[in-house]
Design a protein that fits this description.
heterodimer; A: about 375 residues; alpha/beta; Rossmann fold; 2 domains; 7-stranded mixed β-sheet; 6-stranded mixed β-sheet; 13 helices; B: about 300 residues; 8-stranded mixed β-sheet; 12 helices; about 40% helix; binds thiamine diphosphate; binds iron/sulfur cluster
């Protein structure tokens, strides 16, 4: 069924169709409409699920942990300060190996209060052990939420997944999306069967004191699982393509990269915008491609390395690791070497149009980079 | 009346655990779980209760146990309960088992949230009146005058009354207990198990290293706390407040409490209190008894 709706309504619909047994969430702009919609689905009986109206995001994640540990699929959504408040519990969920799925709407951090798009909220959660997806369209938001449960619950992964998209630019903007029938979603995503759970007939103690002789192995196993998740994500993307006809390239969506001498690396809404920039630059005969980073954790090191073999990279970060540089740029340099151009752009919702991206391309060709619209323009 | 002989022989807190000798938590939890039985899931925040389970891969808790962050016990219980309900397993008891730090202080918001939204669980605050796990720091439950490692010259503030805050949530059952009165504790736990909705219990838990008394005196200390009126045992049910054991007589005036000095002098943490401090402590107790005398007459 084709619909036209906002990313938030589409995210709520995807969450509903994934049939979580427990939803626990706390409102924050620009995520609120997801929570409202899900509450409506539950109260109208359209979705058979427990909805926990928690008093904070910290409790939202703590209750998702409690529920998931008791053997059911869960869902939550948040943004910005809500995500930051969850930070401790994000680590807890990942170390507890609970495949919770969460939507985070990227929003700037205060002060001053800003509700506009900016990825510093999720970038600050980089090391929590969560897998991180960044979406560029409402359709991708729907598709990724369903896929995320398959990825998270996969026996090789068993880690929580965060699906990110830009506040307002996606969250409150209506776009068309194709929604498969529930039966098809059900056969793609079977009911949850947990690897471990709290069970009165098989009592276990989870998370008690652990000594140095075991802790490193716990972390090592998380690392292995994130590495294995790369293939799981790619396989599930392929399976999605076979079933529903859409693919996002697995970890990195490449557009016109094959013959490109220059490749723009971006994610989220800037990634979508860069598509138009590439089209325009191609019309002018420039051999430009786009590598849209869809997955930030696990980091697609090999994919980027391959792209960088034949082309110069221009990396656009909508985040800043203050005291260093854009987080994506740091990681890409670790994968491909220092010879890239890197821009910080769009913080706090500053507009980044396809024209701005073309301008960044031109600047890069003049051997310039930096804070776009602040240092260079 | 249940007698001590009526308590089930099943043990859910196993021997060889990592608690200090004379630890009040194991006594409290052992009794509690005897009442709640096998079909119980327990969630435990950072506290001595996380430690006494013993080191991974061993455990001394024989019911399914989730360890959770310090401030998150009540919220995790909401999640466990929702998941059980979604699976039609409403006969399983969810027990949040937290210290006074995890309840009075850092976990208060989550506790209030879970109470207000009607989570069907039993929340127990075992109250050893300080953060024992991190080495005896003061908490909101530490009494006036008590030495801790963050109040070297004695705490200057009164303890807060968490049970009153909890009662303001208008939940179906609130009870206080003492490990020196195991049959009373057992009866209250049994009752809590049968009531639907949020239940709150608070158990006085004298901690030998924290309060600085000999580890053989834990139960005696918990009994004296009640006999001196420093700790009150009651139930609050359907808007009715009932005092139990010696607390009944202390509140209705028919029983002369033992002098609180008897209790204070046994504890190293009160070693340096002055006569003025003692006056202050006595005044505070009198006011508390008076408050509850009036409150119990209200209903
Ligand atoms: C967010 C956070 N802050 C601080 C701590 C350190 N910490 C662990 S247990 C504890 C005190 C626990 O006190 P209480 O709840 O009274 O339980 P008890 O140790 O007395 O059993 C503290 C401060 C922590 N684990 N998490
Ligand atoms: S410090 Fe006190 S409460 Fe903690 S384990 Fe030892 S006796 Fe028990």
């Amino acid at each position: 069924m084709k619909i036209i709706d906002t990313a938030n309504n589409i995210a709520a619909l995807a969450a509903k169709m994934a049939r979580p047994k427990v939803i626990s969430a706390y409102p924050i702009t620009p995520q609120t409409t997801i929570v409202e919609k899900l509450a409506q689905y539950v109260e109208s009986g359209e979705l058979k699920s427990e909805f926990i109206r928690v008093e904070s995001e910290h409790s939202a994640m703590a209750s998702c942990i409690g529920a998931e540990a008791t053997g059911v699929r869960t869902f939550t959504a948040t943004s910005s300060h809500g995500l930051l408040l969850m930070h401790e519990m994000l680590h807890w969920a990942a170390l507890a190996r609970l495949p919770i799925v969460m939507v985070n709407i990227n929003r700037a951090i205060g002060p001053g209060w800003s509700i506009w798009s900016d990825c510093n909220d999720s970038i600050a959660q980089r090391d929590t052990g969560w897998l991180q997806f960044y979406c560029s369209s409402n359709q991708e938001v729907f598709d990724t939420i369903i896929q995320a449960y398959r990825v998270a619950e996969h026996k090789d992964v068993q880690l929580p997944v965060m699906i990110n998209y830009d506040g307002f630019i996606l969250s409150h903007t209506s776009m068309p999306a194709d929604i498969p029938p529930q039966e098809e979603i059900d056969s793609f995503l079977p009911p949850y069967s947990p690897e471990w759970k709290l069970d009165v007939d098989k009592p276990i103690t989870h998370g008690n004191i652990i000594g140095p002789e075991y802790y490193m192995e716990v972390r090592y196993d998380m690392q292995l699982s994130q590495m294995k998740a790369k293939n799981v994500i790619k396989d599930i993307d392929k399976e999605w393509h076979k079933t529903f006809g859409r693919s996002y390239g697995g970890l990195v969506e490449e557009y016109m990269c094959d013959d490109a001498d220059t490749v723009i690396v971006a994610s989220g809404a800037i990634g979508a915008e860069a598509h138009a920039s590439v089209d325009e630059l191609r019309k002018k005969g420039k051999k430009v491609g786009l590598a849209r980073l869809r997955v930030f954790r696990p980091f697609p090191r090999e994919e980027l390395k391959k792209i960088a073999e034949n082309s110069e990279l221009i990396v656009i970060d909508r985040n800043i690791s203050v005291g260093m540089e854009g987080a994506m740029a740091t990681e890409i340099k670790a994968a491909v070497g220092n010879d890239i151009k890197q821009f910080i752009a769009g913080l706090g919702g500053r507009d980044v149009t396809h024209k701005d991206i073309i301008r960044m391309y031109e600047l890069a060709k003049e051997n310039k980079d930096g804070w776009y619209s602040v240092e260079v323009e | 009346m249940v007698s001590i002989k009526d308590l089930p022989e099943n043990e859910y807190v196993l021997e060889g655990n990592a608690a200090c000798p004379g630890c009040p938590i194991t006594i409290a939890l052992r009794t509690m779980l005897k009442a709640l039985g096998k079909d119980t899931i327990i969630t435990v925040p950072a506290s001595c209760s996380a430690v006494i389970q013993s080191l991974y891969p061993k455990t001394s808790f024989a019911v399914p146990t989730l360890n959770i962050a310090f401030e998150a016990a009540a919220a995790s219980a909401s999640g466990i309960e929702a998941a059980l309900h979604a699976q039609g397993k409403d006969d399983i008891t969810v027990l949040a088992w937290a210290g006074d730090g995890g309840s009075y202080d850092i976990g208060l918001q989550a506790l209030s949230g879970a109470l207000e939204r009607g989570t069907n669980f039993i929340y127990v605050c075992y109250n050893n009146q300080m953060y024992s796990n991190t080495g005896v720091q003061r908490s909101g439950a530490t009494p006036y005058g008590a030495w801790t490692t963050t109040t070297w010259t004695g705490k200057k503030e009164k303890q807060k009354n968490l049970a009153e805050i909890v009662m303001a949530h208008d939940i179906p059952y609130v009870a206080t207990a003492s490990i020196a009165y195991p049959t009373d504790l057992y009866r209250k736990a049994k009752k809590a198990k049968e009531i639907k909705g949020p239940k709150y219990m608070e158990i006085i838990a004298p901690c030998p290293p924290g309060w600085r008394f000999d580890m053989s005196k834990t139960v005696e200390m918990a009994r004296l706390a009640v006999e001196t009126g420093a700790w009150l045992m009651y139930e609050f049910e359907n808007g009715k407040l009932t005092f139990n054991g010696p607390s009944k007589g202390i509140i209705d005036g028919s029983r002369e409490p033992k002098p609180v000095e008897d209790w204070l002098r046994m504890q190293g943490r009160f070693k340096n209190i002055t006569d003025d401090d003692l006056k202050e402590i006595k005044k505070e107790l009198k006011e508390r008894w008076e408050f509850y005398r009036k409150k119990s007459q209200l209903f």
